[in-house]
Amino acid sequence: MSIAGSAYTSNQDNSVSLRQTFIKQTFPADTVKRGLEKISLRLQRIQNAATMSSNLIGLGSENGVSEPVLTVWKAAGNGATHEIVIPVHVTAGSTVTATGRLNVGASQILGIPMRMTVEDPTATDTFNSDFTITSATDGSTTFTATGTATVDWAYIKFRIRINGAFTAQGDPQITTEFGTISLTTTQQLGNTATVKVALFEDDRPLIVSDGKLAYEIATAMTVYDFVFSGTIVLNPNTTLSAIVFIDGDTSDWSDTLTTIKVSIDATASPYADGYAEYYTAGAWSYTPTGIAGTYDQTTTDMYFAMFYQDSLPTTLFDLIEWTEDCNAQASKILNILTVLDSVQESIYNRLNHVIQVEQNTEPVMESFEYQWGSSPVPSNALLLWQNTQENEFGGQFVYNPNKEVIEPNQNAFVRGYPQKIDFIQTSGVAFTAPAIGSGNFASWVSGAFVARFVVTEPTQLSIKFVPQFVDSVALASVNFDYLIVPFGTTPLTTHLAAVAEYGLAAGDGIIQIPFRTQAAAVTDGILIDWLHPTVLSAGAYSIYINFWLRSGTNNSWILGYDPQIGASSTNASNYPIILLEGKTKWQVQ
Amino acid sequence: MAGSIVDFLSLYKYWNNDALSQAEFINRLKGYLDTISQTLIEKESSVVQLSQQYEPTQAQWEQIWIAQTGKGLPIPPNAILLWYNTVSNTFGGQYGTSSGRSTVYRREPFYPKGAIIYQESSYLSTLVTNAIGLMGNRSNMPSLQFTIKKSFDLWLTFELTSTKSGAGYTVGGDFELNGEKVGTKYYGLPANYGLIHNTFYDRLPLRITVPIYNLPAGDYSVVAMFGFVGHVNSSAITSTIGGTAQGIRILTAQAVAR
Question: Which partner from A5, A261, A530, B78 sits 20 to 30 angstroms from B189, CA to CA?
């Protein structure tokens, strides 16, 4: 789920003073509660600040990766309504776009109305986005919805109404209690990923016996088992959900994540009347977006969907109720500390740490990793090079996940005309016939050149050649014309005909060479450098170039010294060297 | 440096069921939270925007930094300074400092992509007549030695004119880059074309240009190569380069920043 519209204000004051949270040295329960609420709100501001800072990094940063929220909700019959609540950080008035994938196992989706709202969770539902999931025969479909946030700290709430595609199995209300819930994820994540799982009953976090809200698993594992032991009492008419947070870079997530499998063990359930079926035989696996799903649900009683949100996970202890029981306070405090630890680690990882390398040559990835002290460097770190040889700023660098290297942070296509030559073809020139002048000043002789070239991106072609003219007493001018056509099979021996066929005519591309004396004509080549005026799109081309020569000395023709290019029956001349250069043109104007 | 700022879980041992212990806990918690707050203040990337006609100066950046952030000098290296060019109504550029320095630099590579960061030529004009094959006669070919400080694409060009005795051949050229042969190109001309199969017309200009992509920063040495392989009528080929008739042979190296 992408959260749009959280505009960053340059001079926004994110410097939150936390020191003022507690001012008294006595701590009645309500004071502690108020203090915790203040801490919570300020941590939310810190989180927002950290998120916005990360946003400045742009695409490819960790913040650009959607964090998945896996929500499992139990079955319902025809016409039943499910509601999914996801707490998020948004900015009031901003537009929120939610994209997700709904997977309903073996059943068909035959038009499921969905509604989304982004609002204060305590407010009366006023869904501001109605949409319908279109039918899908494979049991899964994607959706997109937008809404406008009404408050800063809001819940995105989806309401899904099953529209006749499913068969209810028993009463969907849960009134039982049962012993153990275990969640198992089976996945392969990269070194930068961490996995956290928390259980919710509606929006109430389930506190398991060891006092943890969320389970965090170390990185670089391939199989993750989350076992929530202890007794959990589920209330009637509630939705059980498991939220899986996965922090990792894009490649880790999309390339290697295979399956998230959720199973619930209800063997300890005292009930055998069918209610427990909602939580038995459960083994649901789902492959996140971009990978063909494997959904091996064994009953049609439970469904789950995966949603994505850009914001950080909610500060969970927002949902904690303080207790007057002193013994229970210790457990709450541990919960708070756990969340604080997680939050501050998230903040730390999202800060724009400056990693600067000072040396006289351009640094490589190992240079920054050495400076940072570990590998990899944070994805949103500011990587700077100070060029000590020039005593100048050397450049900003960025991690390229596709090449898995750190390279200069610059656009692939810079404004204007870079001196980047993308291809070149030279020499190998042959003429079908010598170009020999045989007339007077007004007559032309010509030779022709053909070559094939390929451009891979929008390119401007330059044509350079240095025809050398041998034994011309006085060369009056050299003209050339050219034609660029898509590459075909035109053979060299027929290219002149082909040129005619393509309608080559004197016109653009003609360069008039100033009148030259005999000596100059003999000893000098003439550089012709012509830039094709239009940009060629990617493709294969043939280029035909024709030359026209004429000679004369002050308009007087000298017999026996015909201008020539390529070859002559009486005088040797050189083949012209033709140089084609393509320069990328990417002018952002 | 990777990790977290403080260890909140270490505070748990201070929480006990008495007011004094809880006071100690809260005091330590306050300290930790304050540390986080200060870290955030220090490390956040404040954004400063300046819209004007000309590229901002050091003094203007410092002035606008103080005005927009309320923070003092020097400008930290994680600050993001943005200039909007009001003349062209476009983004003018990003600026910033580096660690340990107050100077505001343009946040752009010292060697921008596509820039020619090295270009040099060397030539020889000594007359050489020999029956040479490609890679032969190394000592009579032009060479260059240079040092490049960043990754780059290298364009090597070799230009020369030769004459020969004998009829018909395939001419070729390449380069020796740090001891490795690169960029070999052959230009074989069929017998029914051109003057070079005729002993009477024998001058041949050659220009070989090859790109070598994505070379790392370092020291480089390059030598141009030229020679013949094969011939049409089995007659021996002797080539002549240099001297007054054939002129100079030129090696040009051009490094383009990646």
Answer: A530
Contacts of A10 in chain B (CB under 8 A): 46-49, 68
Which residues 6+ apart lie within 8 Å of A463 measured at CB? A482, A528, A529, A530, A531, A532, A543, A545, A578, A579, A580
Best CA proximity match to A548, nearest among A577, A513, A515: A513
Cα atoms in the Cβ-side hemisphere of radius 13 Å centred on A502: 20
CB atoms within 10 A of CB B81: 26
Q: Is B101 on the interface with A (CB under 8 A)?
A: yes
DSSP state of B44: -
Nearest CA-CA partner of A267 in A284, A257, A275, A279: A279
Give the nearest chain A residue to B64 (CA atoms): A11
**Could you tell me if B47 lies within 8 Å of chain A, comparing CB atoms?**
yes
- Name the packing angle between helices B19-43 and A29-55 (round to 10°): 20
Distance of alpha carbon A69 from alpha carbon A63, whole angstroms: 15
- CA-based nearest residue to B203, from B158, B171, B251: B171
ipTM above 0.85, yes or no: no
Tokens of A147: 């809404």
d(CA A494, CA A492): 5
Interface contact B37-A333, CB threshold 8 A: no
Which of A230, A224, A225, A194 is closest to A212 using CA atoms? A230
**CA of A290 vs chain B CAs: smallest distance (Å):** 31
Contact B52, B38 (CB under 8 A): no
- A39 and B33 within 8 Å at the Cβ level: the answer is yes
Asked if the Cβ–Cβ distance from B205 to A410 is below 8 Å, we say no
* CB spacing of A575 vs B194 below 8 angstroms: yes
Q: Find which of A8, A9, A11 to mutate to test the B interface (most B CBs within 10 Å of its CB).
A: A11
Which residue is it, tokens 């696996």? A285
What's the alpha-carbon Rg for chain B, to the nearest Å?
33
B217 within 8 A of A389, measured Cβ to Cβ: no
Position B258 scores a pLDDT of: 81
Cα–Cα distance for residue pair B224/B207, rounded to 1 Å:
11
The token pair that represents A92 in the structure block: 């009031």
Residues 6+ apart with CB under 8 A from A62: A54, A247, A248, A249, A349, A350, A379, A380
Bigger pLDDT: B70 vs A116 = B70
| Cβ atoms A84, A158 nearer than 8 A | yes
**B126-163 residue pLDDT tens:** 888 875 565 566 788 999 999 999 889 898 988 877 77
Of B34, B46, B258, the CB nearest to A19: B34
pLDDT tens-digit map of A298-341: 222 222 222 222 233 333 333 345 666 676 677 777 777 877 77
- Residue of A72, A77, A82, A280 lying closest to A170 (CA atoms): A77
Test mutation, B32, B33, B119, chain A, max A CBs within 10 A: B33
Is B68 at the interface with chain A, CB within 8 A? Answer: yes
Pick left, alpha or beta for residue A32 (phi over 0 → left; psi -120 to 50 → alpha; otherwise beta).
alpha
DSSP, residue by residue, A482-534: EEEEE-----GGGHHHHHHHTT--S-TT--PPPP--HHHHHH-B--EEEEEEE
> Which residues of chain A does B189 touch, with a Cβ-Cβ cutoff of 8 Å?
430
Cβ count within 10 A of residue A510? 14
Distance CA(B179)–CA(B176), nearest Å, equals 5
> In this predicted model, which residue has the larger pLDDT, A216 or B51?
B51
Which residues of B, range 109-138, sit inside 8 Å of A by Cβ?
Answer: 109-116
Q: Is A414 close to B19, i.e. CB distance below 8 A?
A: no
CA atoms within 13 A on the CB side of B124: 18
